[in-house]
Specification:
The complex is a heterodimer of chains A (587) and B (433). Chain A is mostly helical. Chain A has helices spanning 13-18, 23-53, 60-66, 78-114, 122-141, 172-201, 214-245, 269-303, 310-323, 339-351, 353-367, 376-399, 401-407, 411-441, 447-473, 493-523, and strands spanning 256-257, 260-261. A two-stranded antiparallel sheet of chain A has the order 1-2. Chain B is 51% helix and 11% strand. The chains are: A mainly alpha (587), B alpha+beta (433).
Chain lengths: 587, 433
Amino acid sequence: MAHDTHHHHKESFFTKYIFSQDHKMIGKQYLLTAIFMGAIGITLSALFRMKLGWPDTQFSILESILGSDAAPDGMLDSNWYLGLVTLHGTIMVFFVLTGGLSGTFSNLLIPLQVGARDMASGLMNMIAYWLFFLSSVLMAASLFIETGPAMAGWTVYPPLSVLEEFQPGSGLGMTLWLLSMTVFIASSLLGGINYIVTILNLRTKGMSMTRLPLTIWAFFITAILGVLSFPVLLSAAVLLLMDRGFGTSFYMSDIVTSSGALDATGGSPILYEHLFWFLGHPEVYIILLPALGMTSEIISTCSRKPIFGYRAMIGSMLAIGFLSFIVWGHHMFLTGMNPFLGGVFTFTTLLIAIPSAVKAFNYITTIWKGNVIMTPAMLFCIGSVSTFISGGVTGIILADSALDISQHDTYFVVGHFHIVMGMTAILGMFAGIYHWFPKMYGKSMNKRMGMVHFWVTIVTGYGVFLPMHFLGEGGLPRRYYENTNFPMFDHFLDLNILISIFATIGVLSQLIFFFNFFYSIFRGPKASLNPWNANTLEWTTPLEHVHGNWIGEIPTVYRWPYDYSKPGKEKDFVPQTVPLDDNEEEH
Amino acid sequence: MEGKFVIIIAVALFFIALVQLMKIYDLAAKVRGNKSQEKVTRGENMLMANLMLVFMVAFFGFIIWLIFKYGANAGLYKAASEHGEKLDSLLMLNWYIILPVFFFTNSLLFIFSWRYYHREERKALYYPHNNKLELVWTILPAIALAIIIVFGIRTWNDIMYNKEKGQVVEVYAYQFGWLVRYAGVDNQLGEANYKLVSSTNPLGVITDKSINDTYEEIDKKVSNIDQDLKGNRNKNGDLLIPKSKADKKLEELERLKRRKYRIEAAIDKGETNSTAYSTSDDDVVVQELHLVKDQPYTFIFRSKDVIHCPWLPHFRAQINAVPGMETSFKLTPTITTKEMRMMPEVQEHYKNINEIHNERKRRIGEEEEKVLFDYVLLCNKICGAGHSNMQLKVIVETQEEFENWIENNGDKKRLTFSGQEVSWSETKEQASL
């Protein structure tokens, strides 16, 4: 790629900020879109938590935000409650933690850390972003239609999601959901292929696969998972679209509506569940791995200590990636599938705990005897490892098909996946933002606000999701509009209030972040070239973004990225561009 | 409007306050000569490290408080079914393995973060790998997981491969409620087909009568539409109603004809007046689920419209009800409702629940009531607006009480399938002949 001379070109506003093909700008575009979608996603959760915490109170704020269809007299409508839950899940899982997380950091870091001028295809990269943008708009738009957004839960199981008669959201709202997801999948495939090709082909001289930072390994495996599993979701969505619009019956059979028996026969909703979860489970790791990759990098840098067990970390990510394809059945233990399969999926699912344990202990050993600098990014990483452990252990219970009989679809599940997937990934994403903000905008974020942001987030996060495990142990099903129909759940009234208070504070406290972020873009102090004294290549690029990343030649790499506090070295870090001394062992 | 205004003002004020704070902070930093936002000072490092420890204590404290307050089963008491006890002990085994791991690993993380915070004079240990250590934390989890897997799959197989048939009961799910059908004396449920579902035959049970009723119903609808269309034509035979409306009616007509044809093809087979569907004769449909203590049951679940999930928390039992297929679950209740109500744990708990329940009733201006313990069956798969109120009362009692109930209530709530009305005891006599 002869990009060397390109940075002399004068770019117009449009090609620089809007239809940019520069990976750094595209990364920032992803981030801004994700922050916008994230703000919607968490706001929705705060709104439906109000109903769950105070089931009898009328909140005029609900009516003023959602309108009088959704919340007449300040009481959330039960269909709309499901709509908010559905959109909260969809937005957080796909738009913030898949598109947002991978999109931002894969784009920003892959070329910079492997030593490439740009992505393999800048055009494809730009198209991927704009498709992501389009799908975000479609999804957000579904909140504004009269019958409401999709309401069948983020998994949108048929037949509930097929007929408007079953719930109003299965009309136009569901159509928009499917269209948005179809576009989203196209975007994520274009992005993923680009990431894979760039990592495989555009590494700079000396950057062998075993000298790649763990971030890149994580993005690499993530992209492979996405490319292999998203097409399956696409097929599921297309078949659902056909069942809804063209009278096919892939997912429907023997259904009676108020106007009598439907013609559909021979299909099965279980088919949809298989297709959905064949993406759905790898999706969990598509969300997690980038966060884990970034925490590996940041923990090592801020502990001034090499990541412990570099190869074991890669191996465990590969193992997790592989296993994630053969565990989808644990979401379906109770669908009536063959009990033998239940046993098989229990086995494969529990195997994932082994590489996960290896990762957790490697993080901890990296911190052990380190020299830990408590930057906001590092704080978020410690939080992320903690939630990875806390959420991981309860996964062992849910992986067990027998125990799933008494835990399935209760709040125990909600607590579990929010801690292990939601919080770990979100905390990892925050860590990434705080850590690479200087690289993105050439400015520094305010550290004290970052610290406050971390403590409020971790306290409220745990405050929301730990008690949910106990609601689940008490048998409370998820996605209940109100829990007051069953006196047996009355003793959870105060616990639900506690959760809602934590949730409200947690959501509001994100304003600190939004403020810090946007304030620092414009008013933050100028960042230094390598603010965290890190070894990786991105810190050798100039502060001002140039097209092609390096003004001169691309640097050559001589060592792995984790030579921190290496004995015999003057400084406590040795960048990858420093050649090995005579007789120096690599690691 | 007011609400919107208040929100906008609050958000604006919040941001203004933040901007001011930031300015003060920037100024203060300048005065102190510390402009960098990148370098974390020694004091900050120490503070964060200490907070790690404080957080760990608070975090663990919170969990221990929750455990003491809600216990393992958080108000579900001891399992009321045979397999439920096995599940509960499996769960406890899991907790005994998981909780120490959880506390140990989190402690290491927070204690190390506190102990090794950054000091200029210190240097981190260069320790890139140690294969022995990696091996340790590969093998130890593997052993623990092996235990969990073996016990887990064994319990799973025990529950799912239970061969005992017991009494057969069908639970039929629909938006938003349940119907229960007892298989009667022959312990065989009459066959059902969704094409026959109607207001008089909500479960679609196949009998000569229900087939004929359905035909009649369809014929009536067909002739209604026919007449409607005829009445709306002028002398030339042109339709007087809009084409889209007429098309809808014609489509409905076609659908009805098709339905009749398909019933004829699939169910009837010209066997009218035969005994093929007689197993439904003694079936009883009710709206409450009564179970006999220590009696094994096989539950058959069907769904009318969308996926539902019958969930019996006290019996630790659930399985999806999926349209287009039958699912089943076996369970043996071991504690009657009355016995459950007498348990001191339950009584104490319900004293508390009554207080909370009636405090809320007072608050929202509803009449106070005394709440007693009852088993329930609820829906645990998102199914629409009424999802959170899809309840079925479940009562476990003795054989005698059950006979008494079905004798007196079976008829009242009963929907007959064959032409004649037959009571529970009459069918029982017939069967014994």
